[in-house]
Amino acid sequence: MSPVGGLTWTVYDADKMTQAETYGLVLSELGKMNPKIVGLSADLAKSTKIGKFGEKFPERFFNLGIAEQNMFGVAAGLAKVGLLPFVSTFSVFASMRAVEFLRTDVCYQNLNVKIIATHGGTSFGSAGTTHHSIEDLSIIRAIPNIQLIVPADAVETALAVQACVEVEGPVYIRIGRSFEPRVYQTDQYGFQIGKAVEMKSGTDVTVIACGAVVYHAVEAANILEREDGISVRVINMHTIKPIDREAILKALMETRRIVTFEDHNVIGGLGSAVSEVIAESGKACAFTKVGIPDQFTPHGYPEDLMHYYKIDTDGIVEKVRELLGKEFEKEEDWEDEY
Amino acid sequence: MVENEKDILISKIILKAVLPVIKVLLEDHPTFQKRFKDIQGTVQFTAQNDGQVIGAHIKFDNLNFEISSELLEKPDISFHFSSLKKMNDFFTGKLVLPKIKGFKNFSLLWRMFSVLLKLKLLMPDAKPKNPIDKKIKVKMTLYMVSTALSQLNKSGDVDMVKWTSKQPERIYQWSVDNEDIACWLKIKAGQSKSGRGFYTLRKPFVHMRFPNIDSAIPVLTNSVDTVQAMAQGLLITEGSPEYAAKLGDFMLKIAELLT
Fold first, then answer.
1. ipTM summary value
2. Residue A166 contacts B, CB cutoff 8 Å
3. According to CATH, what is the number of the domain B131-257?
């Protein structure tokens, strides 16, 4: 597999990379081991890949039609009688169209429902503004009881889906549509919900990213190290809630410069979650959050949209260079002490 | 480097990096603590350079110590040199006789001479035997070097400026384990600042740690080079080895200028 960018991926590559594809396969495997798992779809079984589970276990799979709100109500009922429902739809529908049902039926009762929301961020590029899910992290994060995970790639998606079964209560896993570059070559890196992964050590600046942006963050860090001699720490913050405060505070104290990158509106998502930890610490830090600004996204291929919003490799390189010029101390005094 | 430029650079290092470490003697050396208790007075060092007078004065006030590049009209004691080169030679251990004023303050004068003699501990060939002097040598040398590096940059040394100007904000830390010896050099896009203690606002980009005083002595007297020192466990370097090595080159440059 050669991640050269653009639309030059082959179908063979895509099969190995796609988060949704992996999710479908992992859920099918889990279904063999856990008879309580049931699958629910709102007429998007094929697109969200939960259909793979449906093919294996047709008696445990329910297509509820284009009725997302009802799907969450049904999921709550199934959880209430002891089953373990996996609900799959596009993230734009899971987090907005059906949000009151998710909030009141599922989260209010802290029910054991797992939501696998596909086509997150701008990954459904060509489907246009209405299908770009750039508000879901913000909305979901504000609902009590639910945990929020944004895996970096297919490997992490597999681990997150397995891990969420062990968690009692609602979990929302946000994945992409396809073509997410592979970040991990192994699943043996100690994935834990709520525990960030340091992809690269560094002392000059910390880049915190989630989802498909993590791949670009690592690439950008390598470029900055090679071309500028800058030591960049890269953190994969796969769990947005509960956020790994320890990793953020460590980065704050050790690098004093943090920049977040996310395929999401800059209001309320990863950047906001990180900035809350920084602000509450009372420590000085040069900080920038990069993502979709307060605007609706245009139509376009995901790669082009990521480039436009500076959340691809080039954009991250540019933004990190920009942040390095910012001051984190109020006044700088360059007189030598004795 | 033009000879006079070199003299100016050395004099800056002496006035801004060497003289300030007298503070270490007053704070840490029992003999000097006793010697300077209740002593007050000002001592000024000046040198003639191209029609101008360059120098600094020291103020002793019952173990409190201040140094300033501002020149006093009537210091209690003054050491004047007819050229920068002569002042530099005096401080680097060569036989030079300055014009001294203030013999009536003999009590302060002999104390000042004892301080100047003790500053010889900074010389690479000074290999003290007793534990107090060993510690003082290590502390004074590290403090002097960290400030001298900053002064080298501030004075516009071409190689140093080229090195510092490309760096984002970075901390180079030195310390001796289990001792109150720590100092740092902060660099940011061509600017520099030295400081004492541990820099706590961020993690050092390079941290040079000596496990103890005895491990620091051979490194600071150039008895072993940095690579050998690391191999022998005399020096532990955390962070970028390339940048640590480059910093080591500049430390050697300082040593060459002062010998």
1. 0.80
2. no
3. 3.30.1050.10
